[in-house]
């Protein structure tokens, strides 16, 4: 199949995954750096979250540790609901994200809202790989007793090269009473997206034309615990 035909076929599959009903909006609230803007919203995106050297170092570690990835699990072990690979973040990556997250603390506190106190000492951090056809259907990140303490979720996107995959967008449902309204988050390289853990969301299928692990949709993602104020 020629490249243009492949892209057209992939675009059709992505559009089908996005759905034609309701209103789907591209997220338009990107921040370059993000630390200075604290307008309250339940989600925000920060561009250029790491330096290019930091991003490349994480990618190198991911490729070196590829044998450590295991099939992602979810509460209840629902078959086919989630498909991806995951592993715990290494100590260097975890320390780096702890520092970067601390630099954006006013912004993150604003996202969490006035009624939630975030605990920076309780930070979960993992690395995921969405290879061809990986996905995660609609869910929240604190919907069971085991993870009820999660207040803020984050996902950092990185890829080895441009065009290595298609799809993999994050769909956010801001209002549980109006599920026809969706905010679409593109997996922009070297960007981080933060949102309240109770928000319903899903990851549409990722398509990796080469089938190579190195071309996957990689993320560093996790959660920050919080308590009611």
Jot down its keywords.
single chain, 229 residues, alpha+beta, Jelly Rolls, eight-stranded mixed sheet, six-stranded mixed sheet, 4 helices
Give the SSE map:
Blueprint: H1 3-18, E1 23-26, E2 30-32, E3 43-47, H2 52-64, E4 70-71, E5 82-83, E6 85-88, H3 91-103, H4 105-112, E7 116-130, E8 135-139, E9 150-158, E10 166-167, E11 170-173, E12 181-185, E13 191-196, E14 200-203, E15 206-207, E16 217-228
Parallel strand pairs: 1-12, 2-3
Antiparallel strand pairs: 3-13, 4-6, 5-8, 6-7, 7-16, 8-14, 9-13, 9-16, 10-15, 11-12, 11-14
Q: How is this structure best summarized?
A:
With 229 residues, the protein is an alpha+beta fold. It has helices at residues 3-18, 52-64, 91-103, 105-112; strands spanning 23-26, 30-32, 43-47, 70-71, 82-83, 85-88, 116-130, 135-139, 150-158, 166-167, 170-173, 181-185, 191-196, 200-203, 206-207, 217-228.
Description:
The structure is a single chain. The protein is α+β, with helices and mostly antiparallel strands and 229 residues long. The chain has one domain: q2cbj1_9rhob like domain (Jelly Rolls), CATH 2.60.120. It contains four helices and 16 strands. The strands form three sheets. An eight-stranded mixed β-sheet has the order 2-3-13-9-16-7-6-4. It has a six-stranded mixed β-sheet with strand order 1-12-11-14-8-5, with no helix packed on it. A hairpin with a 7-residue loop joins β11 and β12. The chain is globular. The N and C termini lie far apart (57 Å).
């Amino acid at each position: 199949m020629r490249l243009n035909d492949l892209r057209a076929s992939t675009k059709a599959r992505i559009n089908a995954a996005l759905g034609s009903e309701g209103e789907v909006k591209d997220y338009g609230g990107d921040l370059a750096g993000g630390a200075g803007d604290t307008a309250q919203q339940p989600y925000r995106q920060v561009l250029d979250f790491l330096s290019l050297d930091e991003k490349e170092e994480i990618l190198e570690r991911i490729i070196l540790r590829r044998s450590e990835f295991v099939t992602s699990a979810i509460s209840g072990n629902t078959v086919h609901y989630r498909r991806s690979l995951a592993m715990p973040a290494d100590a260097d990556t975890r320390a780096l994200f702890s520092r970067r997250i601390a630099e954006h603390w006013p912004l993150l506190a604003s996202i969490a809202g006035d009624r939630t106190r975030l605990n920076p000492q309780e930070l979960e951090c993992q690395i995921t790989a969405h290879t061809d056809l990986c996905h995660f259907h609609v869910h929240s990140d604190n919907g069971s007793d085991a993870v009820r303490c999660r207040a803020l979720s984050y996902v950092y996107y990185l890829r080895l090269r441009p065009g290595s995959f298609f799809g993999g967008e994050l769909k956010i449902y801001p209002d549980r009473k109006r599920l026809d309204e969706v905010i679409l988050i593109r997996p922009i390289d070297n960007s981080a997206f933060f949102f309240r853990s109770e928000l319903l969301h899903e990851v549409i299928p990722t398509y990796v034309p080469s089938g190579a692990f190195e071309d996957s949709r990689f993320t560093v993602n996790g959660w920050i615990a919080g308590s009611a104020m």
